Amino acid sequence: MDPQIKKGSLEMCILMMLNHKDCYGYEVSKEIGDLLEVKEGTIYLVLQRLERTTYVDSYLQEAQSNKTRKYYRLTNSGIERMKQLINDYYVINEVIDYYMNKLAKEKNNG
Questions:
Q1: Distances 28 to 47, 62, 91, 93, 107 between C-alpha atoms, Å
Q2: What's the pTM value of the predicted model, to 2 decimals?
Q3: pLDDT (tens digit, 9 = 90+) per residue, 21-72?
Q4: Are 27 and 44 in contact, with CB atoms under 8 Å apart?
């Protein structure tokens, strides 16, 4: 996958995952990183940036193994950011679909 497309999609995927439930970093990294083939460190950098921009906040919670995990959760501004990114996704997909259909018609007619 093109790195720029991957980079642009990563933030939206993380926000959507956190909209579903609070998650700790490794959980986000494992689920999204495996699907998009993104390094764990990249996921953590995005989580840190999202926290700095107040789209997510974090809290510590003790796990079963007596380890403390840092969980991330979506904030109200994060929900708004996620909605904006989803809208952008639909708009760009409409444009791509338009041109794909146009090219297919031209190819079939030409």
A1: 9, 17, 26, 25, 42
A2: 0.87
A3: 999 999 999 999 888 889 999 999 999 999 999 999 999 999 888 889 999 9
A4: no
